[in-house]
Amino acid sequence: SVVIQECYVQNTAREYAKLYAAEAEPLEGFGEVPEIIPIFLIHRPANNIPYATVEEELVGEFVKYSVKDGKEVNFLRRDSEAGQKCCTFQHWVYEKTNGNLLVTDLQGVGMKLTDVGIATLAKGYKGFKGNCSFSFIEQFRALHQCNGYCEMLGLKSLRTTHQKQRKATSTKSKNLPNASTVKKMVPKKAREPRDFIPSEN
């Protein structure tokens, strides 16, 4: 059921958030770390809808810090401390899981987040399959801009690996004799970055 999946995803993301907090909190100057609130599943046998979720009510301005697919740039995530720390959290999870998993849809009030999503590569990650398309992972890799919190955690810039990869591909295609060979290169090019990042670690 969707409700069970939602609980599973949010509580998995919550476990990553706890690990992120354990690493980030001791760093001098990092400050408060975003937290994903727990979501509980309750069974109501007498009800038409037998499963429901219960979570803490967040009071205050509800903000979407990261959009599911990363295409839309949300200024609140670029300018606010919580937003930047959410982006760093995404980058941290991405690096920790060798590019196999990304927590998306980070939203909530201040540093308390809920209704998050997780994207995994098609095969999943360690037996876990996300509820978002793996294309979000590719978009994140292409669009993420590191901030000061990424630097504090010593995360590697995704930009450099991405550009190196693109440069290598473009020089290759210059020496190709005709258009038909270039066409054949396209699917390989789309696949390369995905195979490239995980094997690096």
TL;DR?
The chain is α+β, with helices and mostly antiparallel strands.
List keywords for this structure.
single chain; two-stranded antiparallel sheet; alpha+beta; four-stranded mixed β-sheet; about 200 residues; Protein kinase-like fold
Write up this protein.
The protein has 201 residues and is an alpha+beta fold. It has a single domain (2-153), classed as Protein kinase-like fold. Helices cover 48% and strands 14% of the residues. The strands form three sheets. A four-stranded mixed sheet has the order 1-7-6-4. It has a two-stranded antiparallel sheet with strand order 2-3. Strands 5-8 form a two-stranded antiparallel sheet. Strand 6 and strand 7 form a beta hairpin. Helix 6 (158-174) packs antiparallel against helix 7 (179-200). The radius of gyration is 19 Å and the shape is globular. Mean pLDDT is 80; it is low at 169-201.
Q: Give me the CATH fold name.
A: Protein kinase-like fold
Q: In percent, how helical is the residue content?
A: 40-55%
**CATH homologous superfamily heading:** MHCK/EF2 kinase
Task: Tell how many strands the DSSP assignment holds.
Answer: 8
How is this fold's topology laid out?
Layout: H1 2-24, E1 35-36, E2 39-43, E3 51-55, E4 63-64, H2 75-79, H3 81-96, E5 101-104, E6 107-109, E7 112-114, E8 117-120, H4 135-143, H5 148-152, H6 158-174, H7 179-200
Parallel strand pairs: 1-7
Antiparallel strand pairs: 2-3, 4-6, 5-8, 6-7
